[in-house]
Amino acid sequence: MKRLYLYTRIIAVMAMAVIAGKCNAQFYGTVVDGQTNEPVPYVTVRYQNTSIGAITDDNGKFEVPVTPDHDKLEISAVGYKSKIVVVNYGKAVQKSTIKIFSDNVLLGDVTVTTKKKKYKRKENPAVQLMKKVIENKNKYQIENNDFYKCNKYEKHTFSVNEVSAKTFTTGILKKFAFLADHAEVCPETGKLILPLWYTEKSTQELYRKKPKTHKTYITGENSDGFNTLFSSGDFINVVIKDVFTDVDIYKENVRLLHHPFISPISSSQAILFYHYFINDTTFIDGQQCIDVAFTPANAQDFGFTGNLYISTDGEYQVVRSLLNVSSKSGVNFVENLLVQQTFKQLPQGQRTMTLDDMIVELRYLDGTTKLQAQRYTVYSDFDFSPITQEKMFKHPEVETKLAMAEMRDSTFWNNVRPAPLTVTENNIGELITSTKNVGGYGAVMTVLKALLENSIEMTKAPNKFDLMPLNTMISNSYVDGFRLRAGGQTTANFNPHLFLRGYYAYGFKDHRSKFQTEIEYSFNKKKYMAHEFPRQSIMATFGYDTMSPTDQFSNTSKDNFLTSFKTTKVDKMMYVRNADLKFNYETSYFFTTTVDLINTKYTPAGKLFYKRMGTGDYVDHITSSNVKLGFRYAPRESFGCSKQRRIPTNKDATIITLEHTMGVKNLLGADYNYHLTEASFYRRFWLPLGFGSLETYINAGRQWSKVPFPFLLIPASNLSYFTQFDGTSFNMLEEMEFLNDKYLSVILAWNLKGKLFNRIPLFSKLKLREHLGLKVLWGGLDDRNNPYVNTQDDFLFEFPMRDGIPTRVMGSKPYMELSAGISNIFKILSVQYVRRVNYHFDDVNKNGIRFEIKFSY
After folding, report:
1. 528 in a structural domain
2. Where are the alpha helices (DSSP H) in 675-789?
3. Domain total in the chain
4. DSSP type of residue 350
5. Is 179:369 a contact under the CB 8 Å cutoff?
6. DSSP-based helix, strand, coil % in the chain, nearest 5
7. Do 343 and 480 belong to one domain?
């Protein structure tokens, strides 16, 4: 559900333009052999002297936009004469079958024959050439120097794609006729776009070889557009920057669109994964190059198609690269993606990338609005002199923002921008003002913010209080029955250091009020929310509510509306009165320390009871006072902040946690002394040759003391039909089925990303993806904590009963469950079958079906 929330925010902000874009003219062609009339795959089709074009598919088909600025398509292929085709801009739709004829081509010492053959790697001149490129790829890289520094300018622009003047003259969009005046032609695609917002950043990049350190200093940061209308607009920027991240073909894998694309010059995988074809020789900035086209061996795999331009000077260096991802790649929402990169040899001999321009065309479904995201990056002013200021590398954080970065004036930006803003980008403030003046704007924005941010702003801008979260206002439980809840929080506009949060809830079955109040003081100033990175604060919480014992070990909010739909009756609950004083200190290099002082009173409710062994006396309640010390380390973690919480924008960061809890008897009425330790490890591994990702979760815990069962370790059970692979919960465990004082769990989730389904035509067309899972739990219970062994020990409590059956103790073998599922159904739904492998009993289910809703690329 976190991913659902993350991506619905992006999709809904896209809808801000309220535009149903209308397509421009398109040219549809099929390239065939002039003698055999057989389709010719992997042909490069490009407007002359531009990068606008395509590569034909397995059936020789291609599609390119018709633009007013270009009218000559150049068709070039291995073993064929190049051909020029004239495109008529005045026609809306054009279709053509283009015949090309074979020819002998001699490229230096590389000969391409006229006879069309089945692709093979052995004795393939293109493969031999690429092996030379891979062998020499690191020969002149700037990282070979002891030091270097350079300036980097990066701009992200988000636009509605393929609009037209007619779009704003009919229907409901008549109110937005002024938008037509802000549409402009995208120079790279030739299509009419309407920019919605842009962000730009100026940085200085520093590198030291020994010890290897890469530092970034943000010297300027600027943003303008519709994203500024949302309080969590920075969240959208973070997500877009993470999805459309830097592309480095010199790495083995290129992480893009939350997928690892194998680099076309990967040392270990490229030759096996890609097919290469020599097209022709050409000149790039006066340097002669060999044009090599490439495409995945299987067109449906997550891989690039495109062209590499290789120097003919015997150094085999990449001078320019064009990388494409088409809709047939299996990537969701992406109709086309083009990355254009230029590599130059510096006067000192080093070769480095100087230009990185990415354009992504997006659409959720056919007939819906098309969108465009562009990331434009320029590197300049390279300097390889020794960096003597040790303080530049002193702090461990990778990225540091200068104090003045967000306050730069127009003079600064005019000096650092490689190219000026477009007319629409310059006038985007006027566009927003005109939109605000449209009748009904306020009501529309309220609804959009409720959908996007799960909240309603209760005061005029700048908003000081949010009513939230909306998805917890209605729920149901065994003790509460039908439950209503209302809550909210103050924002940094109320006070940038002091934050107040809380809620009130009422259960119509037990007729009791529940509440929570929280006050947090942040030592560092916040823009809007208290949990913005880095979090350095002290927080006090006091509350009274209902809870299932398993809720203590679950990452899912118990009040989330969807969690009300249970696979089984959850009737063992408790009333919890909780007081907590917590200190958070998070460093800018992602190391977090927390200290908690917690006093909690537990009162059994529903069918839960506390009954002493031996005497058989019932206990009305128990109280604990804890001191908890926690550490968390997540290097290079990437996330965005919603109003409610942080949401990971990728899952590539390794996450390590360690917590120790000490219970102190007689402190504020506490009944027990104890020591409890828990640790966890997470890592995602990308598998070679496009076999997807393997997410690994390892969790362990130990209760070191003799305690009654409420202080034992309860395996987290997901008792809802809607699930998420959060790395902690088990789908087929019943409520409190096992109790342990030590455990180790290993959870593996293998997402194959369509590696198998892409070979099945129907599954490939629907972009269905397969995933497998294994969950293993080793648990144990010392005799001192086992009431079945110590039947007369009134220090211990009877284990809870479930439909007359006592809680069980795990044996020497681990509990296991397997899952297999199909995801990406309608691009949002996942269905998985779950099988309990062992510990079969008549009172538990062996099989189950679970659902998950999420957006992913």
Report:
1. yes
2. 761-766
3. 3
4. -
5. no
6. 15, 45, 40
7. no
- pLDDT for residue 1: 38
DSSP H helices, 546-587, are: none
Residue 401: name the closest of 197, 195, 650, 234 by CA: 234
What pLDDT score does 64 carry? Answer: 86
H-type alpha helices, 193-263: 233-243
**Does residue 227 share a domain with residue 192?**
yes
Q: How many helices (H) and strands (E) does the chain have?
A: 9, 45
Angle between helices 441-453 and 2-14 (to 10 degrees): 160
pLDDT of residue 26: 80
Q: For residue 97, give the CATH number of its domain.
A: 2.60.40.1120
Give the residue from 435, 463, 479 where a domain finishes.
Answer: 435
Domain stop point among 435, 465, 481: 435
Do 391 and 465 belong together in one domain? Answer: no
Domain match, 476 and 561 both: yes
b or e along 347-380 (b: 16 or more beta carbons within 10 Å of the residue's beta carbon)? eeebbbbbbbbbbbbbbbeeeebbbbbbbbbbbe
Asked whether residue 52 falls in the same domain as residue 13, the answer is: no
Count of beta carbons in the 10 Å neighbourhood of residue 593: 13
Max CA pair span of the chain:
98
Q: Which amino acid is at 714?
A: I
| Residue 538: CATH number of its domain | 2.40.160.50
pLDDT of residue 22: 35
SS3 assignment, position 152: strand
91 and 25 Cβ atoms separated by less than 8 Å: yes
User: Is residue 5 exposed (0-12), middle (13-18) or buried (19+ Cβ within 10 Å)?
Assistant: buried
Cα 124 from Cα 490, distance rounded (Å):
66
In sequence order, the β-bridge partners of residue 124 are none
Query: Using alpha carbons only, what angle is made at residue 797 by residues 796 and 799, rounded to the nearest 5 degrees?
Result: 125
How long is the chain?
A: 857
Tokens of 500: 């107040």
Q: Cα separation of 763 and 755, whole Å? A: 11
Q: Does any domain span residue 446?
A: no
To the nearest 10 degrees (0 to 180), the angle between helices 233-243 and 2-14 is: 100
SS (H, E, C) 505-539: EEECCCCEEEEEEEEEEECCCCCCCCCCCCCEEEE
Q: In the prediction, which pLDDT does 721 show?
A: 83
Q: What region does 817 belong to: left with phi over 0, alpha with psi -120 to 50, or beta?
A: beta
Provide the pairing of β-strand 399-401 with 370-383: unpaired
Do 411 and 526 lie in a common domain?
A: no
For residue 67, the model assigns a pLDDT of: 77
Residues 423 and 478 in one domain: no
Report the C-alpha gap between 780 and 793 in whole angstroms.
20
Q: What is the pLDDT of residue 7?
A: 37
Task: Give every CB contact of residue 387 below 8 A, 6+ residues apart in sequence.
Answer: 147, 149, 206, 208, 393
Q: Which residues does residue 489 pair with via DSSP β-bridges, in sequence order?
A: 466, 501
Structural domain including 60 reads 26-111
Asked whether residue 95 falls in the same domain as residue 187, the answer is no
Task: Pick out the chain residues at pLDDT < 50.
Answer: 1-23, 104-116
Q: Does a cis peptide bond (omega within 30 degrees of 0) precede residue 787?
A: no
pLDDT value at residue 162: 82
Which pLDDT value is given to residue 242? 67
Q: What's the angle, vertex CA 804, arms to CA 798 and CA 806, rounded to 5?
A: 40
**What is the spatial distance between Cα 765 and Cα 311, in angstroms, rounded to a whole number?**
39
3-state secondary structure of 825: strand
Asked if the structure places residue 122 within a domain, the reply is: no
In a domain, 465, yes or no: yes
Residue among 275, 239, 260, 333 nearest 767 (CA): 333
